[in-house]
Amino acid sequence: MRTVRNSRRTHGFAVLVAVGLLAAACSDGGSITDTGDTITTTVPGDTMAPTTTVAADTLPDCPTDALASATGPVEISFWHGMSSVLNDELIKLTDLYNSSQTKVHVTLTGQTYETTIDNYLQASQSSRPDLVQMPEYMVQSLVDTHSTVPVGKCIAASGFDTSSFLPTALTAYSTQGVQWGMPFNLSNPVLYYSKKAFTAAGLDPNKPPQSLDELRADSQKIVDSGAAKYGLALDSGFDSGGGWYVEQWFAKAQEFYVDGDNGRTNRATQVLYNNQTGADLLTFLQTMINDGLAVSVGDNAGGQDDLLKLADAKEPAAMSIHTSAALGGALSILASGTFPNLKDTDLGIGPMPGPDGKPGALIGGASLWPVDSGDDVKTAATWDFIQFLVSAEQQSEWASVTGYIPVRTDALSVDPYKTKLATDPRFSVAYDQLKASPDALTSAGPVVGPLREMRSVLAQAIAKVFGGADVKATLADASAQANQLITNYNQLNGG
Amino acid sequence: MKRKLRDLPPALLMLVPSLGLLAVWTIYPLVRAVDYGHKACDISVRNCRDVGWDRYWTVFQSKEFQDALLVSLKLALMTVPVGLVLGIGLAVLADKQLKGIGIFRTVFSSTVATSVAVASLVWFVLLQPQVGVLADLLSGWIPKLKNPGLLNDSSTALPAVALSSIWASLGFTFIIIMAGLQSVPRDLYESAFVDGAGSFRRFTNVTLPMLTPSILFVTVVLTTRALQAYGEIALLTGGGPQDTKATTTIPYLIYGNNSLVHNDIGIKSASAVLLFLLCLTFAAVQFRGFGKRVHYGN
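The joint structure predicted for all components is written out below.
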């Protein structure tokens, strides 16, 4: 008797749960980003007016001469997001620094960018490191943590000479007149292409396409001649074809991506990509796929699917757009002979093709942020290490191994980068297109709190467009969702 | 009753170490998560504002959560029954006194020593559409392996993830069921044999009933694992294909690299607590549903 009642109760419970799930599934829920972060009625004292200037005297100081008063070696912790070849090289530079002097000792903690960000944001100020490396999409978020010493203060206090720095590199990490981070590892997207396929298609292997029209024309020739199955491999990853490249293309078109002059003069409140430029761009990509000239490798979860498409034995593509930071690694893999159909000498590098063929690119990569520990000696020691990492000698070494762009022009006349450029001009493409960027805020890239999440939104939209969705409607949806994210963020952080 | 009371202080004393660990690593974070779930906080979680407990309901009803819930349930449906049947099958096969059976037992249980990350990477390399082994070998029969790749197609991505997941947890299922099999008293089989039961009857009337405690345990663990699947999603698909979010499970919705609520501790916590309630509900239903049919021996 008891068993029957029990099992009935169990069944009743299970049915209740199932009905509850179904009922919820049938209800027309809104977006998860619209679940209470934004208050629609104004609460007194809770309105966030955009700030226009940051009062420099409210920011932490950088007493760079405090290191002189240190008695023993100052221990500095550095959280970074470098992996594989990049990690090896950063360890090498840090060891060199540690052994070159006795005042400061740096300990590295390597994770991915994402883990570094999460750990940093959620840690208490005392558990944070003395120095953190943050990717370009984190500028506004990090500013809003109020946890760092702006490097601008260190530059001023120590009289550090930045005259040989690339102006765009510095601008990328400054907002509202404050230099927040120190550019360290710069990259931008370049065109990776198979010279073999270009030759087979009757194209000049040393003349990669500059404009989108040329990109299409060259793809057509490659496909028609049978030199490769596809002209171009596209991806919809949020840190590549689905997000970052769109920011690049807007910069190339000299248009702002978000308002407030890309968030550089005022806090950004909305995206601006839902316009003709955005629609034209996505239509171009969609048509390339529809016409069989380009192929999407999907979300690129492994990060290399688009490059591997160049080495595909059966259905290769001849070109792909990829970050210049992968150049060093890609060349060493190809040189090892892993892919018989693509050798390191077959790989060509060209500037990222843009709407009108003009050169130019946004800064990607990451920068160095000294953390405000309240300890003057540690801050000064951190600054000493930063100065080492961005010196012409170390930038030359760093760039020649990794494919990153040196942050300063004088690194080009120092070995080993000097020799590298002379022997392998592929390493100078990313630098050249960065140098050619017009000196304007459109070339400084968007600074906006939820940039990483906004890239995810756009990546989904672009994946849909690659799959054949209506461009204008998809773009409008993405724009509305991104604006919701910005509104939420500004309400919670905008002060 | 008196004796029970007298035993209480020493019992508590002995429980202190595990209760302490439980309190610090499970209870406290859970309480904090429940609290954050009704708050909206700034980026470094310093300033928070109360948004009301109905946040839980709105998060539960949101389109993204509902989609992820469906994906998580589908993944559980794909992995749990298949994993269980395969595990029982292999265990029954290996439960023979044959020469060299140890080799098979080692092979069948080997994936228990394989982390989700390693298992996922193995499958990622196998399934990679451009240079992967399977893509070039089998694309004649299954064109999707090459174009766009099983993990890049909305209809095959989740089954492909499930495949990797089943493979990875097979060793665990095998070992638990194997242990269950070894504890079945041999005389039960003998008397069944004497009563004229064939091998199939012996399996259904002796083996299965005696295995129910192990099966219940494995079912609960596999279901919880499926609902909490994160590693294989992060490494194999990143929650994609993004156009349909075909493999964005609830954990991936919360923690994934391309999560929309990545830096929003309030919504993340609310989602995590809902996931906890979901796992709890499933475990409860499984315990009660199985309850009377589980044979714990004498």
